[in-house]
Amino acid sequence: MSPRHVRTFAAVITAACLGLAAAGTALAGDDGKGAAAPQSLGSNWYAAAPYLMPLDNDPPDAAAVMDATGLKAFQLAFILAPNGGGCTPTWDGTSPVGSDTAVAGVISAIRAKGGDVSASVGGYGGTKLGQTCATPEATAAAYQQVVDKYGLKALDFDLEEPEYENTAAIHNEIGAAKILQQKNPGIYLSITTAGTADGTGWFGKQMLGEAKSQSFTPDNFSIMPFDGGFNGAASQTAALTKFNSLLRSTFGWDEATAYAHEGISQMNGRSDTGEYFTQTDFQTVLDFATAHHMARFTNWSVNRDRQCSPPDNNGRTSGTCSSVPQSAYDFTKYSVKFAGATPPTTPPTTPPGNGGCTAAAYSAGTVYVGGDTASYNGHTWRAKWWTQGETPSTGGSGVWQDLGAC
């Protein structure tokens, strides 16, 4: 089994106890759903959040990680369908989100120190909600329970095998992400998938095509260039360059726009297949990401960001240590550097030019109220009532009035 999903009974019990203890010290802003009210973090932190399994793989104390590194955000993994089947969210297939207190306690402890979390859905093992829920709407409703339970402002869709080989499941996942984007204005959404020397493989390209067919654009598409014959940073940056070309050809973006929608998720230390990625490799990839103004820089995982005993772990890959010589949280510190060096806001869009219009260009992230004007596709448009994220047109909800060509 992949170290990404190594489970031990002792680790689960320890994490649960820590989480329950933390739950008792939740912020005064607790909304009664088990997690303290979220902090206001910039999207750069959600873009830099490394993965943390809060219930498995001997989870470190998140507050101690924050103290040691300056990190403010964690990517909690993984939301799955119940192991017995169904369309309700669980942690790791075993712990129902609806009755959770352990993860809620971890989240409260992070928020008490001024941080926040994103949740990752999917991952390498287990059964995914896109596989068990019948429709995109049903899949979105399951994920909305997670968003509401924890007051989330960010969500990651980790779409990999075997789920991404299932066309219907990927249709459900991408459709659910689009619905969540519409129902939760401003939510930060990332799509993470396998990396190859060609950027991503056949199923990853099919996933990009599905996103295009549904007119869905997340904050970023990230690849995982490991476990695929990679060897250090040079092979990873080469894959990122190839992936940029795929984004350009799929969505019609220029190079800069594609990089502004592109991210990387690395594996620190020894990968599942015996590749090695050291601190030097992480620095090289970080330099590439910041130089190209990439949208995301993350890694698997905080649980693994400590030295094994012995340091090489006898040549094995572990879910609880990196199998390379290091000080505690060496790799997490690169996420902190990325958050400070490359703060991604809303990725640039490429609407038609203003065509001489005097009104400000329409922005999908702007809230418009009745009477506000915006220019789009050479026309001036007036909002009839409150709207956000609905491109000016004479269709849709009817919120926009076309005032004519500029």
Q: Could you characterize the architecture of this molecule?
A:
By secondary structure, this protein is of the alpha/beta class. It has twelve helices and 15 strands. The strands form three sheets. Strands 1, 2, 3, 4, 5, 6, 7, 8, 9 and 12 form a ten-stranded mixed β-sheet that branches. The chain has a three-stranded antiparallel β-sheet with strand order 13-14-15, with no helix packed on it. It has a two-stranded antiparallel ribbon with strand order 10-11. Strand 10 (269-270) and strand 11 (276-277) form a beta hairpin. The model is unreliable at 5-32 and 348-355 (pLDDT under 50).
Mean pLDDT: 88
Helical segment count: 12
H and E string: HHEHEEEHEHHEHEHEHHEEEHEHEEE
Helix-strand category: alpha/beta
Our Rg estimate from Cα atoms comes to 21 Å
**Termini gap:** 61 Å
| Tally of DSSP β-strands | 15
What's the shape? globular
Instruction: Describe the oligomeric state of these chains in a short phrase.
Output: single chain
* Major sheet details: 10 strands, mixed
Q: What labels would you give this structure?
A:
17% strand, alpha/beta, 3-stranded antiparallel sheet, globular, 406 residues, 10-stranded mixed sheet
